[in-house]
Design brief:
The protein has 339 residues and is an alpha/beta fold. It folds into two domains: 183 residues, Rossmann fold; 111 residues, no CATH class. Helices cover 38% and strands 19% of the residues. The chain is built from twelve helices and eleven strands. A hairpin with a 2-residue loop joins β6 and β7. The longest helix is centred in the N-terminal third of the chain and has 19 residues. The protein is elongated, with a radius of gyration of 24 Å.
Length: 339
């Protein structure tokens, strides 16, 4: 017997795999890579995931998500949570993708680390039948951590596996998981906020992007994790780097798209400070406001006259300069910030 596990990188999915291995089943795992991180952070994440899964000697498939995932995010059938999180639709999407992999991998069923009652929108008894039915995988999804609380799956009724050794975990308590982690000597990391889409600030940035552009795009979605984001007009926004790595990320984006119109790279001269990336159709007032905020986060003294260098993209790309007075007034910042 062989199973494919949906791997999240968390302790629950590690334990689900271990419990199924104890049932004598060969396991491979899949991680669906959401397009939310800059390239360097994404590389670190993949390295970390491979390190975790290596404890169980399981092959991990990293599957980047593409445009079909973005179309689901734009209009989820079951709606959003408190942020921009279509948890039910997301989970169904992942399961469908994993289901398509079963035949290719010669696997018989799926495993998840879901726990009854752990998440209000997608992990309760009423949600599981909806998820199983809409994913087209009813009876083929095994949830070992709550096995004693759920109806038997095909793999159990057909006698392929026994889950008698599995727990019946319910709710958000972690006591049983921690005891199992110690028993199996598993290294793991404490959850730190989960999916980006559940973060309200990130979610508001995504909503703003969708409203302005009419659709989500992979590259601009990745930028939501970089810098401070400001909306100056319906068609123009700015991103201001918070550190050297973010400045590099903004420069890379500008350089890659330097022949496209509608991009601006700003830098306050004469003192250390951020790079700012302007995106969209800008009038003179929009650029002045982005220049003012670029100065706001520079190391210039308050009220200093600062020269801002501007690079504009496009076939007729050009340089220009603006001069503005630095202000530390927080109202100027909050007027445009996307939060």
């Amino acid at each position: 017997m062989k199973a494919l596990a949906l791997f999240s990188g968390g302790l629950d999915s590690l334990l689900a795999i271990k419990l199924i291995q104890e049932a004598g089943v060969e396991v491979e795992a899949v991680y669906f890579l959401q397009p939310f991180l800059p390239s360097q952070q994404e590389e670190k994440l993949i390295k970390h995931l491979n390190s975790l899964i290596s404890q169980l000697k399981v092959k991990l498939h990293i599957v980047p998500l593409g445009d079909d995932y973005l179309r689901m995010l734009e209009s989820p059938q079951h709606g959003y949570g408190k942020a921009f999180n279509p948890c039910l639709d997301c989970h169904i999407f992942f399961l469908r993708q994993a289901g398509e992999m079963l035949k290719k991998l010669d696997a018989d069923f799926l495993i998840t680390g879901e726990v009854v009652g752990q998440r209000p929108k997608s992990q309760h008894k009423g949600a599981f039948p909806i998820i199983d039915q809409e994913s087209g995988l009813a009876g083929l999804i095994v949830r070992p951590l709550s096995a004693g609380l759920l109806p038997p799956t095909i793999s159990e009724t057909e006698g392929w596996i026994s889950l008698d050794h599995c727990p019946s975990i319910q709710g958000r308590q972690r006591k049983v998981q921690l005891e199992l982690a110690e028993k199996y000597n598993l290294k793991y990391e404490t959850p730190a906020g989960g999916c980006q889409l559940t973060n309200r600030e990130f979610g508001n940035k995504a909503k703003d992007l969708l409203a302005a552009d009419g659709k989500l795009k992979l590259e601009t979605l990745r930028l939501l994790s970089t810098g401070r984001h400001f909306r100056f007009s319906p068609k123009f926004k700015g991103i201001i780097g918070r550190n050297h790595l973010e400045n590099q990320e903004l420069f890379r984006y500008f350089y890659k798209h330097r022949w496209d119109s509608g991009l601006y790279l700003l830098k306050a001269m004469g003192a250390p400070g951020p790079l700012s990336l302007g995106m969209g159709l800008a009038n003179s007032e929009d650029l002045e406001n982005l220049a003012l905020l670029t100065t706001r986060y520079s190391d210039h003294q308050d009220q200093a006259e600062v020269s801002i260098k501007i690079l504009a993209s496009g076939k007729n790309h050009h340089k220009s300069k603006l001069t503005c007075k630095k202000t530390t007034d927080p109202l100027v910042t909050e007027k445009f910030r996307i939060t």
